[in-house]
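SEQUENCE AND FOLD
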Amino acid sequence: MSRFYVTTPIYYVNAEPHLGHAYTTIVGDALTRWHRLLGDDVKYVTGTDEHGLKIQQTAEAAGQTPQDFVDAIAPKYDRLNRIISFRLDVRWRKRAVRDLALPAGSTVLDLASGTGDLCLDLAAGGIRPISMDLSFGMLSADRSGAPRSQVDILKLPIPNSSVDGITCGFALRNLENLQMFFFELARVTRHGGRIALLDVSVPTNPFIRFGNKIYFGKVVPIIGGLFSDRAAYKYLPRSVAYLPKPAELIEMLTKCGFADAQHQQLSGGLTQLIVATRN
């Protein structure tokens, strides 16, 4: 078993928001979980900060960052998505844009935008998308033509109540603190604005669930290894385990200020779509 010493920003335990502390910085913890899923050991250092709050921080880096992993799969990301999903990903994104239900001319942030697939679908519907992702490699491969920015999606450089809507495709499972993410969505979305969130799911039908487990657990990593980065595609099928149950997701969104939040399973539960309106 390999031991990885991964640098991440400080993780605050029982942090005090009024002191300006973030509960966690998402990407670092996602990388830590990635290594753990691959059977590697990750070592932490604990202590206290200047306010006496308990902190937990990973040790000195081995030279890899979360962006390195995502950047590695960026060049062939779109093609692999089509192959792995049998082009169902195209249908899922179009459904998300349709259920976003915003009029033409609306301004929508596409968070964790990857190479811009959702931006293309938004633009086709007359919506003005803005592409935001932490990965420079993904943004470099973005061919949507939308304005783009490299940002941490937990700290959006956007004023309060300034956008009409937000989309996010297949990134929720990589976020350590979804509640914080949902609060950030609520902060920047105007009242009456809409959000549409796509991610993988666990099918409720036992036969589909069994087939899905074999395909994504065994076949997808092999395909990913042939065309791109095997380690990345070994992690992705397992990462669904980090998503809360649908009822919990809806409750979290409601607490953050999104009314009428609705959860839908698509394609027999292979994917889930959540849509909601800002109170």
In short: Residues 69 and 182 are 25 Å apart (CA to CA).
